[in-house]
Design goal:
Layout lengths: L3 H11 L13 H20 L4 H13 L4 H12 L21 E2 L2 E2 L5 H20 L4 H59 L2 H12 L2 H11 L5 H12 L4 H61 L2 H12 L1
Helix pairs in contact: 1-2, 1-6, 3-4, 7-8, 7-9, 8-10
């Protein structure tokens, strides 16, 4: 007999399987149910019926494999409609029977009781042999599909676990590299701190705990000896990484403070120059006044001398 379930599952894998409504089947459980239904239809057409025990076995198998409830319900209704022997009960039209009477699936018409018992025994033996032979081709195909799905699931889980483990190893290695880099920076920072003058380190620490004016004054003071880049490097060695925007603001304030100090120094020098000029002027005025006073005193002394004596002195001086 042709393995209809295998053919149906092959069509399902290729995407060619469609339901009775013409829609494409995407659920593997629905495909299995369609294969079982078509397999049963072929059995009924070739054998004229199906044993009740086999139907019961198929119902139990479909329940255990999660077949659609509508399919299970249909099989159970068909099983309930069977007689004890296994054939489907024939419908009646009035008092006319549409099929010959049977017992345990064996037709009674034209047979003696001995033949009926012998045929029933042979039927039961054949049924037991069929049950002992194992699952039907449909059941084997279903089990094969289920096993393939399970293997695929296990393989997907294994691949996912390997990916997770590789990602964990990568993150752990990255964390170890970061820790090693942090340790290297810490050792380098300690070595550079030891090489810095202690008074400069103390000044940076004091400014960090003070106001913004203290930080500005520190920057302005150190600008006399170092450029801004080296000053920032020293500050970061002592205090840690500095924010760019904060450092820019501090640099701007330091520039404004330097400009203010320059203007104050220029004003002080101008005031000093004016003071010195004023003192020089006063000195000159004092000297001029003293000269005038001396000349006036000399004139007064000359005026007291007799004119005849003055003329004699002048004559002597002119010789």
């Amino acid at each position: 007999m042709m393995n209809k379930v295998g053919k149906v599952m092959h069509e399902f894998k290729e995407g060619k399987l469609k339901s009775s409504s013409g829609q494409k089947v995407t659920n593997p459980k629905q495909a299995i149910a369609i294969g079982i239904a078509e397999q049963k239809a072929m059995k009924k057409m070739s054998m004229g019926g199906e044993p009740k025990a086999m139907v019961k076995k198929e119902v139990a198998f479909m329940k255990s494999r999660g077949a659609p409830k509508s399919m299970v319900k249909h099989e159970m209704a068909e099983m309930k409609g069977m007689k004890k022997g296994g054939s489907v009960m024939q419908s009646k039209m009035g008092s006319v029977k549409t099929a010959a009477p049977s017992m345990n699936g064996i037709a009674m018409k034209g047979k003696t009781k001995g033949k009926m018992v012998k045929a029933s025994r042979l039927y039961q033996q054949a049924l037991a042999t069929q049950v002992q032979e194992g699952p039907s081709p449909a059941e084997q195909e279903i089990q094969r599909v289920i096993q393939e799905n399970e293997r695929a699931r296990i393989e997907a889980e294994r691949i996912r676990a390997e990916q997770i483990e590789q990602e964990r190893i990568r993150l752990e290695q990255q964390r170890q590299r970061e820790l090693a880099e942090q340790e290297r920076i810490r050792i380098q920072r300690e070595q550079l701190l030891q090489a810095l003058p202690q008074d400069l380190v103390n000044a940076v620490l004091a400014a960090s705990q003070g106001s913004i004016n203290d930080k500005v004054n520190l920057l302005v003071t150190q600008r006399q000896f170092l450029p801004d880049a080296q000053i920032r490097g020293i500050v970061e060695l002592v205090l840690g990484k500095q924010n760019d925007s904060d450092w820019s603001s501090l640099t701007q304030l330091a520039n404004e403070e330097q400009e203010r100090q320059r203007l104050e120094e220029a004003a002080r020098q101008e005031a000093e120059r004016q003071r010195l000029a004023e003192e020089e002027r006063k000195t000159l005025e004092k000297a001029s006044r003293a000269a005038r006073e001396a000349e006036e005193k000399r004139q007064q002394e000359i005026a007291k001398v007799p004119s005849s004596l003055v003329d004699q002195i002048r004559n002597i001086a002119s010789r």
